[in-house]
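Researcher: Here's the sequence for the chain we discussed earlier.
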Amino acid sequence: MDKEFIKSEDYFSFELNGEESIDASELSQILRNTVEVVENLVPNQEDTYVNLKVTKFSTGSFDIDFSAICEQVKNIINSPEALATIIVASVSGAFGLVKHLKGEKPERIEEHEDRFDVVNCDGEKYSINKALGKQYFKNSKIENSVINIVNIVKNNERDGFQIKSKRETVKFAQSDINSVAPIVGEIMNDSEHEFVNTIDTTLIIRKPDLVGRSKWGFIFDKNIEATIEDKEWLTKIHNEKTKFGMGMKLPVKLKIIVPLDNNSCPIGEPTYVVVKVTGDIQEIEDNQIALPV
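Model: Thanks. This is the structure I predict for it:
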């Protein structure tokens, strides 16, 4: 039985500030690195074909228009009719992520059902689709290709550029260009020595900290201590002088960090971090006691 390929198509463009012309070798490098970004978004996927075409060059600054033409066989887990849209969103998202990170490792990366939320060193969040999130942090290939293009613009002494699609425009000013630096390799080296898992769970409050910013005591699968990063929730609890009682529960997004040895075997005790309080404190009737503040 012949396979039926479903076709999709979408568009994006690069707009380089400044002169209307560009060195041919630099243009060639931009095109090659753009192709490499796309290729690394769908590496070795069976029955999947992606063709990236340049549709036109425009003047006024120097603009390059691209068309992503995709073909994929339908199965129970993919959406071939949306593949080109996902690819284009991932290309602009890769540039947006490099800009967002500012050459610093992210504070945290949260994986959700339909996206990754990446929080940078300033505590700002940027969301990318799962197609990009899974490939971007897998190795440095996508990051390197994006940075290569940024460096071409920098060396060309242009004061900025932007990448545009129907859904998003990512603008790089001179300050953004200057702050770009590779970080994925550093993250990969760090991750070789620890296993990080983030889960949604409910913790029993054992020992609250009602004054400072020290660790709280909880019952998880055992007695644990956890740092709470949700500053907004902490401020609310401290200002309201919330009363806690035995057995109260707290729904949270909990990050568990397990140190590993050189053979990737767990060593030592895990570290626990409450990334976000996800709901209200669950009280037990007639069992509330006031703790001194």
